[in-house]
Amino acid sequence: MNPTPSSASPFDMVSGALGDYIPKGGATVADAGAPAEAPEGGEQILGVVSLGRDLRIGGSNLDAAPFAGVTAAPGAAFADLLPPEDVATVTQRLRRVLETREAHVARVQRLRRDDGTELVVSMSILPAAPPQDGLTVSLIAMAKRLHLYASATAIGTSLDIGETAQSLAQSLLAWGDVAAVNLDYAVWTGEAVTEQAQERIRLRRAALVPDRAWPEGYLTPGDNLPREASQLLAGAVMRDDVPQAIVIPDRAAIERALGDPRLVRALVPGDRPVSVACIPLVVEGPEGTPGPIVLGVTEVWRRPECLFRDGELLDLQELVAKTARHVDLARQHQREHAQVLALQRRLLPRAGSDTIEVASVYEPTTPDSAGVGGDWVNSFPLPGDRTALVVGDVVGHGLGAAAAMGQLSMEARALLSAGLGPGEVLERLDETVTLLDDTDAGLAAGYSALGSTCCIAVYDPVDHRLVISNAGHLPPVLVRPDGSAETVATQPHPALGAEFVVREPFEVQEFDAPPGSLLVLYTDGLVEDPAASIDDGIGRLTDVVCEVHPWEDLQQAARRVVARLAPQEPLRDDVTLLLARLSGRRGRDTATWHLPARADTAARARALAAPLLRRWHTGEQARDSALLVISELVANAVRFGTGPVTLRLVRAGSLLTCEIGDTGDGRPRLRRGDPLDDTGRGLYVVHKLTTRWGVRWTHTGKAVWAELEV
């Protein structure tokens, strides 16, 4: 079919678009239907295929020599011209142009010849000129230099090592029938590739094209090359300590070089006559290392009658050299990604307790995005039978964010365990973020944590209460046992380190959390949608978590929530979710008394506690120790505190927690008294009789707690 005058403009559009792919002084786009002058390595010819709305071929002009073997029969599906793995993607592009009538131009694409080999073209999809209804697909059989330039600009758009290797292999296929990429094992692990001793080389097949059924024993992606093959390939391309491309012209020479039928089966694609070009992936070594570093070896196989010309080898070396830098960047990114991911996994909650069940899901950003983000979530027990639930989102991605995330997470845990309340902990974290951003530690390192967010919840299983404070984070969701749900919104407060606003104390609020309630903590990656407001996203989350059944396995429920809400496309932000099912402590395992601050209060506390400890079947020695601890702590509260005294006992298995609260703000301190002192020995006795003890601060004063094994 000859192009009509009305369809000539699409060819102009393609020619203009391809101008960005052609280096100055390089090949030029041929006129429609006319052969161009063929530079060394092949021709560049424009062909055209017209499609109806059903994506079937109406006519074509693929008569030029480069398109030999590509049969575009009228009535056949355009998908028949494509490799199977490309059908879905290209079909989607064709339908999008049909719907939007916006051209899709200059994409490198493979076509399948009748004999199973492939032809690399530049494909543009254009809406047919009125009054025709359908598509015009223009195909340019690319000259080697044009293909080289287009491939070099396309490779490296991903920081995933496998995708980069696959892109290189597909580009190399323009010079042969089979292309393979083998990378040093250290590239996959992110290690520094500095060791060049030939006996230590380890190669793994990273990519192989085309995708077809290969003979048994032939190495495919993911397979490790035999050590002898690794040494042979690495040694061949490192002649005189200089990485060089090598060509073995025929099968007999290849078999002599390999010297082992097992290696021939592993490396040679099939039983046909072949020749091979091996080109090393090379980068400059770090300072102090002698010479360049070989990251891997590429193989290009083709029929022996098609000799590799010097110009083709130079093109291959140029393409592989440009790709080597991207492979090294992907290696470095892989190492950083693995380090941050390991740290983030370490921060995920472990098992819950008999008063709270926790389940978490963490899905990191895709490896070729900006890097793993700074989302973190944690839960851990606190003294007094309480549990802390913390979620945060540190600004940025990568190692800087990971370092800040780890520091804030550990500091929050230490401060909460030391007895500070959620609001006080956020005050300290606010100061820490500001310090992280000073000239020496923050900006000089190219990273700022200002604007990070954090939300802290402390659950009391005895009172069935939640104490929550929030620093700019999205509000938690609380689902009550009756199925009703609400966002637990505290007083709005800026994020951490926001010094440009008027500083206000962090608001602390308490909420009832009856047994069977479900607390939901999350980060913005779970609920953000570019097409909707954040409130809509939180609303969808609330609807989904309301469907979690009280007896459903919580980890499975967490995965289902993430599957329903998380974006389906590659993640550009971490997705983090924590579900906490609050079961509380049974009433028969706790007791609380409010006592006046009088001289006889310690005796009154012993009288109240003794019968209860007997009902709990506490051993006589443990009961005596517990009563002595209670007496000493109550006496201290009466002497040094003010106002009424609260005594709380909690039994959790073999552990007994005694907690005495008062309205004073003085911190009890352990000291060794002199032999003649009449006072000061009480806390020393408590220290000797308990497994641990400490102080926590409350909104009315303080509470001294102690734990005993009974």
In short:
32% of the residues lie in helices and 26% in strands. It has 710 residues and is of the alpha+beta class. The strands form six sheets. Strands 2-1-5-4-3 form a five-stranded antiparallel β-sheet, sandwiched between helices. It has a five-stranded antiparallel β-sheet with strand order 7-6-12-11-10, with helices on both faces. It has a five-stranded antiparallel β-sheet with strand order 13-22-21-18-19.
Shape: elongated
**Into which percent range does the helicity of residues fall?**
25-40%
> What integer value in Å does the Rg equal?
35 Å
Largest beta-sheet details: 5 strands, antiparallel
Counting DSSP E segments of at least 2 residues, the number of strands comes to 27
Average pLDDT, rounded to a whole number, is: 79
Indicate the low-confidence ranges by residue numbers: 1-43, 195-199, 439-445
Strand content: 25-35%
> How far is it from the N-terminal to the C-terminal residue, by CA?
93 Å
Number of helices: 17
Strand order of the largest sheet: 2-1-5-4-3
Specify the structural class. Answer: alpha+beta
